[in-house]
Amino acid sequence: MGGILCKNGVLFWKALSVDLNDPTFKSDMDLVECGSGKIHESIDKLPSSQQDLKTHSKDAQRSELSTFNSSIGVLLSCLGCVIGTGNIWRFPRIIATASYSQGSLTFLIAWAMSLFVWSLPLSIVEYTLGRFTRTSPLGAFHRFLGNKLVWLGGWIVAVTYMITAYFSVIVGWCLYYFYKSCALSSLPRDVETSIKIFNEFAQESYWPALTHTLAVVIVGGCIFGGIKWIEKANMVLVPMLLGILIFTFGWSLTRKYSEVGITFLFTPYWGSMFTPSLWVAAASQNAFDTGAAMALFISYSSYFSRKNGAVRLGTMIPLCNNMVR
C-alpha cells in the first residue's frame, strides 16, 4: 500500500504497511523533486504493483517539458500531417474514377457526409486519447483497453508504417520534380513528354534511391530534433504548401476548358447516390484526407499543452483540411 503527498513543491511517496527491512525501500518516506526532472532512485525500485507512480511521474515531466510552443504551431503541424499529395494528386483521381460521366456532385455529397459521420468522430477520439494519456498509440490503447486489446494500437501503427513506406517514395518523386522544374528552361506541354521524364527518372536507378534517401533524411532529422524541430519545420513548410495550393487553384481556373471541369464538379447524378462503390471511395478518400484512424494525432496531441483543446482541434483540423480541397 502507498500514498502520495505533494507539499511545497516536493512530492513524497509514503509507504504504508510496508516492512521497513525490505531492501526495496530505503526509508518509510521517499522523496521526489517535483518539476526538476530528477526522480529519486528509490522509485525505480518500487514493486511492480506500484509502477504506475513511476509512469505517471515521467508523463508529468514530459507534459511540462515537451509541448508545442504556440497554438499556430499546433495548427500548422497537424495540418502538415494531412495536407499533401492527397489534395493535389489522389483526390482529383478518385473523384474522376468514382464519379459517373453525368457529374460528380453526388460523390462530393457522400465525401462530405463521410467527414461528419466517420472522420470527425475518429479524429476527436484520437486527439482526446493523446491529450489525456500523453503517451504513444500503444500506451494509449493499453491504458484504455488493457493488455488484451493493446495489439489494436500496434496494428494501427503497423498499417501507418506501411503507408509511410510508400509515401516517402512519393515525397522523393516530388523532390525530383522540384529539381527538374528548376533545371528545365520550360515545363513540358504535352503528356508524352511528361511520361518520358518520369520513365527516365524511374529507369535511372540512382535517382529514385537518392531522392528517397534525401526525403527520409530530412524527415528523420526533424524527428530526431523532437517536437520543437517538427513545429519549426511545419511553421515554414506548411504555409509554403498552402501558397502553392492557392496558386495552383487560381492558375487552373485560367486554363482552357476550366469551366467544363467546374460544371462537371457541381453537376449531380442522383442515380449514383446509392451505389456502394461510390460511398466506399468517398469514405476511404475522406479518411485519407484527414488522417483519421492512423494514430498520427494520438502522438501529436500527447505534446499538447493545457490550452490546446482536443475536441476543438479535432474538429477544426479535418474541416480546414477539407476546405483546402
TrEMBL record:
GO cellular component: membrane
Species in which this protein is naturally found: Schistosoma margrebowiei
Subcellular compartments: Membrane
Lineage, top ranks: Eukaryota, Metazoa, Spiralia, Lophotrochozoa, Platyhelminthes
Domain of life assignment: Eukaryota
Bilayer disposition of the protein: Multi-pass membrane protein
Identification of the protein by name: Uncharacterized protein
This protein's UniProt keywords: Membrane, Metal-binding, Sodium, Transmembrane, Transmembrane helix, Transport
Annotated Na(+) binding sites: G80, N87
Cited PANTHER family: TRANSPORTER (PTHR42948:SF1)
GO molecular function, one term: metal ion binding
